[in-house]
């Protein structure tokens, strides 16, 4: 574990070396006290999952690379399929502008809807010209599709950051459940994006591939957690992990839609309780 932490710190240093400006400026950009960043680099404190996610986003890398040394490492969370991988540039200035545009587009899609967002809306949100948007994204569909990939990457990075240090599969599965609750803020916005991806996938083959590959990653992450729990002896072993994964993911999807659409009697708290009850009844070994 210490070797992994040491390698992680060295990769964060690599990010700092590539990023323009001072270490203090980088710390300020990711919302981290400079002293805490120094302590984390020295090994006297650990980076939190949220900090790793912000470092990856600001440094134009993935959390998977920071922790495991590869964008495609198969660890606690299944690596995203190729169609869901966000194209990245190594030029720090261009990467920063690229990221700013995607962030703005992502939020606008989540708040207004996929078809209601125009290039001019994104340009206004970023304080730049439409021509600058087109420099990075030739067409509106290119921008919107990349914004959806951006959402997939955010979710994947957060999962890797949150789960990599949790060895107990039962605890990890419950954390995965928690990461799928449409709580106000980031997670609710992500659910809004997913609802729109589902809708677009029904009529747009290209979007269908993105959805299928992204959902496969999520499904495989649940399945490998259940499989590891069976090996640890904390989950039932008389049922194939796939047969346990399908009803759990379907339950998460259905309850999430009900919460997001404000069905009476459905809340984040109720969704959490139902999912915990299901895990305890159908998956945990007693």
From TrEMBL:
<keyword id="KW-0804">Transcription</keyword>
<protein>
    <submittedName>
        <fullName>TetR/AcrR family transcriptional regulator</fullName>
    </submittedName>
</protein>
<dbReference type="InterPro" id="IPR001647">
    <property type="entry name" value="HTH_TetR"/>
</dbReference>
<feature type="DNA-binding region" description="H-T-H motif">
    <location>
        <begin position="118"/>
        <end position="137"/>
    </location>
</feature>
<dbReference type="InterPro" id="IPR009057">
    <property type="entry name" value="Homeodomain-like_sf"/>
</dbReference>
<feature type="domain" description="HTH cro/C1-type">
    <location>
        <begin position="22"/>
        <end position="66"/>
    </location>
</feature>
<dbReference type="Pfam" id="PF00440">
    <property type="entry name" value="TetR_N"/>
</dbReference>
<feature type="domain" description="HTH tetR-type">
    <location>
        <begin position="95"/>
        <end position="155"/>
    </location>
</feature>
<keyword id="KW-0805">Transcription regulation</keyword>
<keyword id="KW-0238">DNA-binding</keyword>
<dbReference type="Pfam" id="PF13977">
    <property type="entry name" value="TetR_C_6"/>
</dbReference>
<dbReference type="InterPro" id="IPR050109">
    <property type="entry name" value="HTH-type_TetR-like_transc_reg"/>
</dbReference>
<dbReference type="InterPro" id="IPR010982">
    <property type="entry name" value="Lambda_DNA-bd_dom_sf"/>
</dbReference>
<dbReference type="InterPro" id="IPR039538">
    <property type="entry name" value="BetI_C"/>
</dbReference>
<dbReference type="InterPro" id="IPR036271">
    <property type="entry name" value="Tet_transcr_reg_TetR-rel_C_sf"/>
</dbReference>
<keyword id="KW-0678">Repressor</keyword>
<dbReference type="InterPro" id="IPR001387">
    <property type="entry name" value="Cro/C1-type_HTH"/>
</dbReference>
């Amino acid at each position: 574990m210490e070797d992994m932490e040491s390698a992680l710190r060295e990769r964060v240093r690599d990010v700092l070396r590539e990023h323009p400006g001072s270490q203090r400026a980088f710390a300020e950009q990711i919302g981290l006290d400079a002293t805490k960043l120094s302590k984390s680099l020295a090994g006297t404190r650990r980076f939190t999952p949220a900090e790793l996610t912000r470092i990856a986003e600001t440094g134009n890398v993935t959390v998977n690379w920071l922790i495991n040394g590869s964008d495609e490492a198969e660890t606690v969370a299944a690596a995203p399929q190729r169609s869901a991988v966000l194209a990245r540039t190594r030029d720090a200035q261009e990467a920063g502008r690229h990221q700013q545009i995607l962030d703005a587009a992502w939020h606008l899609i989540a708040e207004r809807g996929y078809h209601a967002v125009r290039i001019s809306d994104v340009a206004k949100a970023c304080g730049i010209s439409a021509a600058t948007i087109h420099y990075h994204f030739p067409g509106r569909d290119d921008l919107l599709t990349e914004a959806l990939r951006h959402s997939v990457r955010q979710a994947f990075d957060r999962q890797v950051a949150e789960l990599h240090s949790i060895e107990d599969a039962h605890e990890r599965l419950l954390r995965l459940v928690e990461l799928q609750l449409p709580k106000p803020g980031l997670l609710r916005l992500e659910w809004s994006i997913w609802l729109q991806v589902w809708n677009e996938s029904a009529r747009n083959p290209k979007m269908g591939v993105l959805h299928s590959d992204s959902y496969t990653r999520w499904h495989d992450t649940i399945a490998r957690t259940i499989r590891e729990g069976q090996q640890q002896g904390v989950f039932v072993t008389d049922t194939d992990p796939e047969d346990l994964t399908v009803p759990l993911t379907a339950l998460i999807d259905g309850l999430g839609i009900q919460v997001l659409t404000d069905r009476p009697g459905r809340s984040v708290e109720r969704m959490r309780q139902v999912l915990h009850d299901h895990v305890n009844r159908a998956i945990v070994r007693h």
